[in-house]
Amino acid sequence: MFFGTIGIKQSMLNIISETGIFLPITKLVLPKITILNKVNNIIYISLLYKTLSFSVSKKVFDRIKIGSKLENNFLKIKKVKTTSLSKGKGFTGVIKRYNFKSNRQSHGNSKAHNKPGSIGMCQDPGRVFKGKKMSGRMGFKKVSKYNKVFLSSNNLLYLYGSIPGKYNSYVKITPYERYKS
Description:
The protein has helices at about 60-65, 95-100, and strands at about 5-15, 20-30, 35-40, 40-45, 50-55, 80-85, 90, 135-140, 140-150, 155-160, 170-175. The chain is mainly beta. The two termini are about 20 Å apart.
């Protein structure tokens, strides 16, 4: 039973279909993975210099042996769930972070073009409510996306569309069971 693997994002490609439409494809390299340990339905695997974990069902957990190599079997799988850290954008303002509109560029406006505007009300609440959209760090969060498998080989995987994260970042790939082709 195939429960998932870890890939390394390599590049994005454009492939022209027979009808002349450009298809965005993401190339992933699937390195060799060894199972290190298993505890309470969680499997710990070694990948190059990292130790990562997978949570699996009880059936899969009982079948897996410590020290065995993980097979990359994407032959019967049509759709996968990819999870990775998105690109970090640093400290950004509300216009970039939440798509706020900027203020007027002329007609009496000076030094307040990219400001968020009023953030509170009056004396009655006398504070700024929690959850107010303000400036802060953007990106570098765990993001999941569903992709269709375009082509798979022994150590390469090609998926339709984009995948979160920068190049050479680790991507957790699990089969998406709810998808019926």
